Amino acid sequence: MKKILLSSLVLASVLMGEKIVIGATPVPHAEILEVAKASLQSQGYELEIKVFNDYVLPNKALADKDLDANFMQHEPYLREFNAMNGTRLEPVFGVHLEPMGAYSKSIKSLAELKDGDKIAIPNDPTNESRALDLLAKNGLIELDTKVKLRTPMDITKNPKNLKFVELEGATLPRALDEVSLAVINSNFALNANLNPKSDSIISEDGINNPYSNIVVVRADEVYGKKANALKNAILSDEVKKFINEKYKGAVIPSF
């Protein structure tokens, strides 16, 4: 009887397959991963998605081997994180672009901004610079282009004397009641029922954009079986169709 029970447990383990644990922010990352589950199962892997509401913890968890991979960031942010934390995390492949946009509850165009109005931007180095670049591209400010990662200290012209409020990315949608404008990453915007395509006053375009979101693993796992299985499952026609139909241009496939 014990032998039969043991054999049944072994068989069940084989049928379940090996587990891949991946960290992701809720929207759109976790939603996209749900679509890839069936393909991974056919490759012999069970996908466990752990949801995070920030960018720091998924990288720390990956470095500490609590995750096999994560999916919630673009490469410039990853490189900055590695440099600041001494981690060795590497991108495996790009999945989609989330155009960063500027939102408001009080104005409908940038021309309505008044002297001294407050603008909320992300406080992490990469996304802060990206947000300022978007505002500069749309004529609100001018920046010192010699600086790689720009902050409000690198603004060289600010005709409307705009005040910049630096906040954690996930809190930016909640700041819309307190500021005239907030520049928000699309995953946090979508999670707050804001559509980057229809609700933003201005947003990035996808032309030559370096901010595609990537699946990341530890450096020694870039060519591993789990990374390859994730690539096969996510870079599929089924996932591309889901992104296009679900987000209708608010999220753009990078493959």
Word description of this protein:
Helix 2 (26-42) links the parallel strand 1 (18-24) and strand 2. A 6-stranded mixed β-sheet has the order 2-1-3-12-4-13, with helices on both faces. The protein has a 5-stranded mixed β-sheet with strand order 9-6-10-5-11. It contains 8 helices and 13 strands. 38% of the residues are buried. By secondary structure, the chain is an alpha/beta fold. The protein has 2 domains: 2-99 and 209-253, Periplasmic binding protein-like II (D-Maltodextrin-Binding Protein, domain 2, 3-Layer(aba) Sandwich); 101-203, Periplasmic binding protein-like II (D-Maltodextrin-Binding Protein, domain 2).
Layout of SSEs?
Layout: H1 2-16, E1 18-24, H2 26-42, E2 45-51, H3 56-63, E3 69-74, H4 75-85, E4 89-97, E5 101-103, E6 118-122, H5 125-137, E7 142-143, E8 155-157, E9 163-167, E10 181-184, H6 186-191, E11 202-203, E12 212-218, H7 225-234, H8 237-247, E13 252-253
Parallel strand pairs: 1-2, 1-3, 6-9, 6-10
Antiparallel strand pairs: 3-12, 4-12, 4-13, 5-10, 5-11, 7-8
Helix pairs in contact: 2-7
